[in-house]
Amino acid sequence: MKYIALIAGLFLFSCQTQGNSSNTKKEPVSEQINYQRLDTATFAGGCFWCVEASFEQIQGVAEAVSGYAGGDKSTADYRLVSSGRTNHAEAVQVYYDPSIIDYETLLEIFFTAHDPTQLNRQGPDVGAQYRSEIFYHNEEQRRLAEAKMEELAPEFSDPIVTKLSKLEGFYEAEEYHQDYEVKHPNNSYIVNVSRPKIEKVAKKFKDRLKSN
Question: Looking at the predicted structure, is the pLDDT value of residue 4 above 50?
Fold first, then answer.
């Protein structure tokens, strides 16, 4: 759904309508990162720009990659996903060092970086592609995610609507979506929507932030 939301006196474009329209894919992260020490987690919590940047600032996270999960490879394209008819969610794949940070802590960051009580939306972004969903890679991740949702439920005034699904495939988003917050720090969406979420995570997990 393409629309413009007015925030802080600005015409604020949603994540869906921002950015270059190029379809250039990012070089596969497997060619850039040594995976030997890393584990992988996959989360969807609204616009992937916000989720990616929230995790990128955390110690132990080697890389957070924006992409699509929940749908087929053939429709893992931004324009198609933005239609809301591909079953994909905008998702982020987190490559992390388990000797520094564990999956349970990543879950806590995930539930801080977005509102898990909003169904098929996050703030100004509306549609199933912005749903809250944890894509687990194995049964241990599924068990930990279920336990964490039960633990955190009392902290929210509304029920947690986060879906829990086995990851069937993750497809990296186009290059212009990667590290969008770093590349476009003055973008109105980044300033008004992404930055407050990133700063909320930074405040709560200040002892886990990477040193600059």
Answer: no
Token duo for residue 12: 């604020």
Q: Rounded to the nearest 5 degrees, what angle is found at the Cα of 58, between the Cα atoms of 123 and 110?
A: 35
- Locate 88 and state its tokens: 């994909």
Residue 53 phi/psi, 5-degree rounding, is -65, -30
CATH code given to domain 4-208 = 3.30.1060.10
| Per-residue CA distances from 53 to 73, 91, 155, 180 (Å) | 24, 12, 24, 8
List, by residue number, the catalytic residues: 47
**SS3 state of residue 165:** strand
Which sign does the torsion angle of CA 86, 89, 90, 93 carry?
negative
- For 173-184, what is each residue's pLDDT tens digit? 999 999 999 999
- Reduced to 3 states (helix: H, G, I; strand: E, B; else coil), residue 93 is strand
* Pairing mode, strands 163-166 and 170-172: unpaired
Q: What is the pTM assigned to this prediction?
A: 0.86
Structural domain spans, the chain: 4-208
Per-residue model confidence (pLDDT) at position 21 = 39
